[in-house]
Design brief:
Blueprint: E1 26-32, E2 38-43, H1 46-53, E3 71-78, H2 81-93, H3 96-103, E4 119-121
């Protein structure tokens, strides 16, 4: 299972990503709405993205408008944007029960196993 880290204390190693900035990290993340729905997305900065989704700054997803308060409950670093997008697609296909197990760190999908990146979980 992955190591836990506080998203406010960046302890992640730089990874080579796609594009011109080799230090740019990509993450797949889950956000929980007030109704308990889990929203899946990708970002280089999940904390900033949460602020966007909450309407604090411009750029949030329409699907999350009016669904707050929102909570970032899980994130996982991907080697690059392409893989983060692939993981996002795969996570979106999972049933809610599987996503809840992922958030609880009771389960990890095969496509994430063996990846030695750090994750964050906050219930």
């Amino acid at each position: 299972m992955s190591e836990l880290c506080d998203h406010n204390k960046p302890e992640l190693q730089a990874t080579v990503g796609e594009g011109s900035n080799p230090a740019k990290h990509w993450f797949v993340y889950l956000i929980r709405t007030q109704q308990g729905v889990l929203y899946t997305g990708i970002s280089t900065d999940p904390a900033r993205r949460l602020r966007q989704h909450q309407g604090e700054i411009v750029g949030g997803a329409k699907a999350l408008r009016g669904k707050g308060p929102l909570q970032l409950v899980w994130q996982y670093q991907a080697p690059n944007r392409s893989i983060a997008s692939q993981w996002e697609f795969q996570l979106k296909k999972l049933p809610k029960k599987a996503k809840e197990q992922l958030v609880s760190l009771l389960w990890q999908p095969e496509f994430l196993q063996g990846i030695q990146q750090k994750s964050y979980s906050d219930k």
